[in-house]
Design goal:
Elements lengths: L2 H6 L14 E7 L8 E4 L13 E6 L4 E13 L10 E2 L8 H13 L4 H8 L2 H4 L4 E9 L3 H5 L6 H13 L3 E2 H8 L4 H8 L3 E9 L19 H16 L4 E6 L5 H14 L3 E5 L7 H8 L5 E4 L5 H12 L5 E4 L11 E7 L16 H12 L3 E5 L4 H8 L4 E5 L10 E6 L4 H5 L6 H12 L3 E5 L6 E5 L17 E3 L4 E3 L6 E3 L13 E5 L1 H11 L5 E4 L9 H11 L4 E4 L12 E6 L13 H13 L10 E6 L5 H7 L3 H14 L7 E9 L2 H22 L4 E13 L2 E10 L2 H12 L9 E6 L6
Parallel strand pairs: 9-14, 9-15, 10-12, 10-13, 11-12, 13-14, 16-26, 17-24, 17-25, 23-24, 25-26
Antiparallel strand pairs: 1-2, 1-4, 3-4, 3-5, 6-7, 6-8, 18-22, 19-20, 20-21, 27-29, 27-30, 28-29
Helix pairs in contact: 2-3, 2-13, 6-7, 9-10, 19-20, 20-21, 22-23
The chain binds adenosine-5'-diphosphate (ADP) and zinc ion.
Zinc ion binds next to loops.
Amino acid sequence: MSDAQQRLFETDPDPWDLDAREQWIASVVFPEGPVGPFDYLVPENLLDQAQAGRRVRAPLGKANRLTTGYCVALASRIADRPLKPLAEVVDARRLLSATMLRLTAWIAEHYLCPWGLVLHAVVPAGVRLQAGTRLVTLVRPVEDLPERLEGRTLAPKQKAVIEALLAAGRPLPAAELAARAGCGLGPVNTLRRRGLLRAETRRADTASLKEAPQPPRQEHLVLNPDQQRALEAILAAVRAGKPETILVHGVTGSGKTEVYIQAIADVVRRGRQGIVLVPEISLTPQTVERFRARFDRVAVLHSHLSDVERHQHWQRIADGGVQVVVGARSAIFSPTPNAGLIVLDEEHEASFKQDSAPRYHAREVALARSREDRIPLVLGSATPALESWHRACCGAYRLVEMPRRVFDRPLPAVGTLDLRQDAVVRHSRGAVSRQLHVAIEGALRDGGQVILLLNRRGFSTHIQCPACGHAVKCPECEIALTHHRTEEIVLCHYCDYRLPAPAACPACGFAGIRYSGVGTQRLEAEIRARFPGVACLRMDTDSMRSRGAHEKALAAFRSGTARILLGTQMIAKGLDFPGVTLVGVINADMALHLPDFRAAERTFQLVTQVAGRTGRGEKGGRVLVQTFNPDHAAILAAVHHDYAAFAASELPLRQILSYPPFGVMIRLVVRGPKEQFVTLFAQTLGQRLGESLERHAPGARLLGPAPAPFAKLRGHFRIQIQLQGPDGDALRAAVREATAGLEPPEEVQWIVDVDPLDML
Ligand code: ADP
Ligand code: ZN
């Protein structure tokens, strides 16, 4: 944090030892344009409303345009120049606590994002708009009504109004009061004019929070020794009031969630709140019910909430009316008044990183919040991100291992099927090898259920003319279009560009254009043909578009109505189905050769996670992984359930190239519709970065400017620049200097991504 920011957070001085020349000064940050903070004078009439964390309206720029911004600090000091006064205080209560203001300042600093933009992103739109409330005017009697009435005679209707108001015993809207008194608004207004009634404006809810019915109460489970140890490690940190980070490395099905729940129960008994972050996809009824069955007041924050619902939850959390917040990424900004513990489950998940500004990672923000609130942070995963693992190995985090499944259930046996050897897959265009077919048959015969993972949507993934070689690509993205058979279209998975599926080559007109490559739709057709009469469900973003489809599909699979569940990575995560005895991975290599230094890590995580979906019941389970690279370290480690071996093979490779966790990376992408402007600007930016790196971070690496792996996306050409070095602050300083005052030409945009996860 800079000195200037530090000063902003100093506590307000005592009002009585004010120097006469001191004035109340508000520092205001604006969400767009010049960000600030800028100082404003707090005029006398706003002194009782102004507060750090509330929004204000203030004149901005030469034109003094009234603009809404966030008051980030309030202090009595001597101004060094004449200040403009605030025009208005917008909020009746503060939207951001002092902690949240510091946290947002940290995010702005760390992720090179304007502070105002961070503030704007942290306060949900529904809260800013006060969605679900409206201003109502209420009428109440003046305090000295009895004295004022003495010796006066009132018209009968006026008398009826006063009587109705006193009978109600609370302020009433004018129309309601008139109705109760059996008259029009006339007498009410007369009484107000005569100073007997007073009107006041207040914000009232227009709708009340819809509560899901409380599930039957569940008692805590009796923990096994591994769980007990994990719980004690967390509670020790809670008791010590230390901002310690605990990495719970627990295999799939080791009972991590039960540990989180019991740790939070302890925190709640101390009158504090728990915050649980899970990937959006895990916010299934199954997870949510587990929390709601143990706590009375749980707020569930998922992306489908309306503005009104979000505002209502937010208000209730801020009022301390919620014990546990369970939510996706942005729940880390929950305004809990007295948080006691933060849990981030499946901490390796890429969805914890936001892909638009501010490009924050919820794990890093949680870490910063745990420092601010001085509370522990629990990170949980069967396959921790190597960044987290490395920090645990260095001693920055406390590592707790949960190497066994509950009831000592064995981890499933994982076998590989070498696709190079398989004639079925090579010569027919099928996706299921002979051995996998036999295994599915066996599992179904024994009454088990089957999960099949294929991380690619659509029917055919590759469309090419054998006569002229033309491949059908998206004109906006230069990426192969995927055939979707349900609508008979070819579709771009990046920009949604679509065409009717061509029957002949669009380039040469040859009628034998070839559709190949297997997506989930084709796999579904193949499975239905291979196992006629067996109920099969497909889960991917296409089949799960409608609201509630996800829950419905999972319920059908849970009840056993469906025997085979196939789909993209959305089936790999966090699901707990005891009936599943076989998991098949159709092609484990899909992500292995992407130009991304995390390709092996992603592959290892995906295979391990999907393997974890089986063997959770009494019947046990097995996993078959089809692959062209059965000897790859990532695949081998997944086969042996050996995270440590994977980390040991991968970390040295990262170290050699100074990739995270051994170096900090900042990625800049320049994009725009006109290639030459994009290139030109990227060159300028690259040159300036090169010079500022020399000054701030000599020895740091500068890669590019070079075309991004997706060199064109949605009609925009993309050029990337990558910085790598041991000292993140030095890299940030270099970027700040190189980009200060830099104006890209029209139609060219640039973004900066600190600690990027998306390398394409
Ligand atoms: P993880 O989060 O590590 O994948 P879960 O917490 O989901 O594991 O536990 C897996 C299953 O085991 C769940 O169905 C859960 O109810 C059950 N379970 C967890 N802990 C215990 C325990 N101590 N005794 C009995 N069952 C347990
Ligand atoms: Zn496209």
